[in-house]
């Protein structure tokens, strides 16, 4: 009888959970999967990257729950690869290791003034308002005029949170420290900037439409920002979703202004070229007006505008962090791979190592892309196993090593305990949930 296949999947966000699910369903024989997570709780960016006023998207957790209920998938949280366990130790214990560590850092916006106080990464702010213990506990929201750079869903989330009131968000799962900061928010104008046109915006229609659901937000689009060339028109024909985005922007552009205390204006065809400062602090953003070039791209017009703002949030993409002793492409911020296998600097396959999700392809795509991505990787792994290309891990349980080292690892049963505690905290205030923020408190609730 063949020994069971033992696989470690590093990262318990959607990418790691989908990969675990596919391995469990498609392995030819018995398989044991350890889903190893750095945080005390699972779900990655579904828990810590989705705005708190979007419970619809968080419903994805229900399907992820079903995967983690699978008997041959075991969650082990509060474990840092490189500190508590090395990659070499993982390869010693498992037949294969799949990295699904995602991306939580911000990409840089390399323009003059990027070092000024008041220039923030969107991921930092998302980490704050989502109660991620790795980020700040309070936030300075004294700026009355704010710029958000980037026309994707993260940019819209940041802009919407900045334009809402703290009391609007108090019905969600935000913890007390987040509410205390948000209720001090002074923002009256939030400006969202994109360098291209409506047909190239990366919003999803639902996200864009939901901006107008708040009675406190007047969404504004300048009719001058509605423009299309032949390539833009083709983009609309090729994608129903993109066409809907254009329609919604057009409706915002032609409607009468809405009476609301906060204005959220979406600016198309404005390329940020410099952050303006005084005494080391942000006082403005300079943009260059662009125009369509006939091919769906844009070119500068030489016309510049200075926008008075006191804070800037760059939502220009997430960036993955390297894993100790695993090849990493610093420029692209991904693990080099051939679609699944990890590759070394010479382009050779590193036996037993695989990658999936954003650490594999970069921070692009939606949940559907994550599923297809995981299938590509797991198909390679299972084929390698069937053809005898994996080195079997030694007998023994990795938790023995963790216990010897005094690592307070958390489990799936522990998540249920933390989940129950957060629901109880929320119920006491008439809410569904209130997040536990402090790392040690999360571990305590998970191990009680």
Topology overview:
Blueprint: E1 5-10, H1 14-26, E2 31-36, H2 44-48, H3 55-58, H4 60-68, E3 73-77, H5 87-93, E4 96-99, E5 105-106, E6 119-121, H6 122-129, E7 145-149, H7 153-163, H8 166-169, H9 176-182, E8 189-193, H10 205-210, E9 217-221, H11 230-238, H12 240-254, E10 262-267, E11 270-278, E12 281-292, E13 298-308, E14 311-314, E15 318-319, E16 341-343, E17 349-355, H13 358-361, H14 367-386, H15 398-404, E18 410-411, H16 412-427, H17 439-447
Parallel strand pairs: 1-2, 1-4, 2-3, 4-17, 6-14, 7-8, 7-14, 8-10, 9-10
Antiparallel strand pairs: 3-18, 5-15, 11-12, 12-13, 16-17
Helix pairs in contact: 1-14, 6-7, 11-12, 16-17
Written description of the protein model:
Helices cover 34% and strands 22% of the residues. It is α/β, with parallel strands linked by helices. A 7-stranded mixed beta sheet has the order 16-17-4-1-2-3-18, sandwiched between helices. Strand 11 (270-278) and strand 12 (281-292) form a beta hairpin. Helix 6 crosses helix 7, helix 11 crosses helix 12 (240-254) and helix 16 (412-427) packs across helix 17 (439-447). It starts with a strand and ends with a helix.
């Amino acid at each position: 009888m063949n020994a069971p296949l033992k696989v470690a999947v590093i990262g318990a966000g959607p990418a790691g959970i989908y990969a675990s699910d596919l391995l469990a369903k498609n392995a030819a024989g018995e398989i044991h999967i350890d889903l190893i997570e750095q945080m005390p709780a699972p779900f990655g960016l579904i828990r810590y990257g989705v705005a708190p006023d979007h419970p619809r998207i968080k419903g994805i957790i229900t399907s992820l729950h079903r995967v983690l209920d699978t008997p041959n998938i075991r969650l082990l949280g509060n474990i840092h690869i490189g500190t508590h366990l090395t990659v070499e130790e993982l390869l010693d214990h498992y037949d294969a290791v799949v990295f699904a560590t995602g991306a939580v850092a911000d990409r840089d916006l390399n323009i003059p003034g990027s070092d000024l106080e008041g220039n923030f990464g969107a991921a930092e702010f998302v980490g704050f308002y989502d109660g991620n213990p790795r980020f700040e506990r309070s936030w300075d929201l004294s700026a009355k005029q704010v710029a958000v750079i980037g026309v994707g869903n993260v940019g819209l989330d940041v802009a919407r949170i900045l334009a809402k009131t703290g009391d609007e968000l108090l019905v969600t799962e935000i913890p007390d420290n987040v509410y205390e900061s948000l209720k001090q928010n002074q923002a009256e104008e939030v400006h969202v900037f994109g360098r291209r046109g409506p047909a190239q915006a990366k919003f999803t229609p639902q996200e864009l439409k939901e901006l107008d659901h708040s009675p406190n937000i007047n969404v504004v689009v300048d009719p001058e920002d509605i423009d299309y060339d032949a390539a833009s028109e083709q983009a609309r024909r090729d994608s129903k979703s993109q066409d809907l985005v254009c329609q919604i922007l057009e409706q915002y552009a032609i409607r009468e202004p809405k009476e609301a205390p906060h204005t959220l204006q979406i600016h198309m065809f404005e390329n940020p070229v410099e952050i303006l400062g005084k005494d080391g602090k942000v006082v403005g953003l300079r943009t260059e007006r662009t125009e369509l070039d006939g091919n769906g791209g844009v070119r500068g017009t030489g016309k510049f505008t200075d926008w008075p703002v006191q804070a800037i949030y760059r939502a220009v993409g997430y960036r993955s962090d390297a894993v100790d002793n695993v090849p990493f492409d610093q420029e692209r911020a991904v693990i080099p791979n051939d679609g699944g296998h990890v590759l070394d600097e010479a382009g050779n396959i590193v036996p037993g190592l695989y990658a999936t999700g954003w650490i594999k392809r970069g921070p692009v795509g939606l949940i559907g892309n994550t599923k297809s991505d995981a299938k590509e990787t797991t198909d390679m792994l299972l084929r390698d196993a069937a053809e005898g290309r994996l080195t079997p891990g030694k007998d023994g349980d990795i938790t023995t090593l963790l216990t010897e080292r005094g690592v307070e690892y958390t489990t799936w049963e522990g998540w249920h305990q933390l989940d129950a505690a957060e629901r109880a905290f929320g119920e006491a205030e008439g809410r569904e949930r209130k997040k536990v923020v402090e790392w040690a408190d999360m571990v305590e609730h998970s191990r009680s």
